[in-house]
């Protein structure tokens, strides 16, 4: 990632949603597509691994890591692709993608079809925690990607992933709890959850779900000595999650500075360079 520290790199990625840069017509580019449960993100980096442009849309085209609305997903990726292409002044032809650990070949193929249907050939497929570690650069420990639908655990030793574990619990379950408590729609509950003004109100209501996530993580760590748990993914931004997961795992827990961006940015870093 050029010479940037992880937090500085994620800061640049965040800025590239608004402050975008043109690129040379023949410069090798690296693009990553993250088909998430709550949102779809496309990130493009230059030949030095610096962000050129990124685009994101809230969407419900994926559930528990699986594409459930192919047509809408393809159209959405096509829209993001066009937005990034206009920003950088260049056509995108290839992308890397990421999947939850343990995803079957059949379900992985569906993610491929979404990308190719939007005009992007898939050059590489990564596990989501593996992608996040391309940003974090950990040699040892555990990376946990808590997305909208799944919690994926990856154990690292000497910079290599030696074990992965995944279970279908994530941010969607938090939203359902809020919807039930307040008697509002899923969409209204999702907006309530994402509003920074409500961060402290949410924790007491969703604590049982976070405890379950902590239990999933603990099971994923069984028989593997780990010093620290690193959280990424949109749900990792939930205020107070590190305390609850820490209690459930009896381990120190660290949350990425921009947890929602760690995986999509890592997917782009892991992409094979593509040029004209």
DSSP summary: helix tally = 9
CATH superfamily of the largest domain: ATPase, nucleotide binding domain
User: What is the residue-averaged pLDDT?
Assistant: 90
Number of structurally distinct domains: 2
Order of SSEs, N→C? HEEEEEHEHEHEEEHHHEHEH
Distance between the termini: 22 Å
Would you write up a description of this structure?
- The chain is of the alpha/beta class and 276 residues long.
- It has two domains: 6-132 and 261-269, 2-Layer Sandwich (Nucleotidyltransferase, domain 5), CATH 3.30.420; 137-257, ATPase, nucleotide binding domain (Nucleotidyltransferase, domain 5, 2-Layer Sandwich).
- Helices cover 42% and strands 24% of the residues.
- The protein has helices spanning 6-15, 70-88, 105-117, 128-136, 171-182, 186-194, 199-221, 241-249, 259-269, and strands at 30-35, 39-45, 51-58, 62-63, 66-67, 94-99, 121-127, 141-146, 151-157, 160-167, 229-232, 253-255.
- It has a five-stranded mixed sheet, sandwiched between helices. Strands 10-9-8-11-12 form a five-stranded mixed sheet, with helices on both faces.
- Helix 5 (171-182) packs antiparallel against helix 7.
- The longest helix has 23 residues, at 199-221.
- The radius of gyration is 18 Å and the shape is globular.
- The mean pLDDT is 90.
């Amino acid at each position: 990632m050029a010479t940037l520290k992880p937090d500085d790199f994620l800061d640049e990625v965040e800025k590239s949603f608004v402050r975008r840069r043109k690129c040379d017509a023949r410069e090798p580019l690296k693009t990553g597509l993250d088909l998430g449960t709550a949102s779809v993100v496309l990130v493009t980096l230059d030949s030095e691994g610096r962000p050129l442009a990124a685009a994101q849309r809230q969407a419900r085209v994926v559930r528990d890591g699986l594409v459930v609305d192919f047509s809408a997903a393809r159209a959405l990726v096509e829209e993001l692709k066009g937005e990034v292409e206009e920003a950088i002044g260049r056509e995108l032809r290839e992308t890397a993608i990421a999947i939850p650990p343990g995803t079957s070949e059949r379900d992985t193929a569906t993610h491929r079809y979404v990308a190719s249907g939007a005009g992007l050939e898939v050059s590489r497929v990564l596990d989501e925690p593996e992608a996040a570690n391309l940003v974090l650069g950990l040699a040892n420990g555990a990376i946990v990607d808590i997305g909208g639908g799944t919690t994926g655990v990856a154990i690292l030793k000497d910079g290599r992933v030696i074990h992965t574990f995944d279970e279908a619990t994530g941010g969607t379950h938090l939203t359902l709890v809020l919807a039930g408590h307040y008697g509002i729609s899923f969409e209204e509950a999702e907006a309530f959850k994402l509003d920074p003004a409500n961060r402290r109100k949410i924790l007491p209501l969703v604590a049982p779900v976070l405890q379950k996530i902590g239990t999933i993580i603990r099971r994923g760590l069984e028989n593997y000595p780990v010093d620290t748990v690193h959280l990424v993914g949109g749900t990792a931004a939930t205020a107070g999650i590190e305390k609850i997961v820490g209690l459930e795992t009896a381990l120190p827990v660290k949350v990425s500075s921009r947890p929602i961006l760690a995986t999509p940015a890592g997917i782009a870093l892991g992409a094979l360079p593509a040029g004209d």
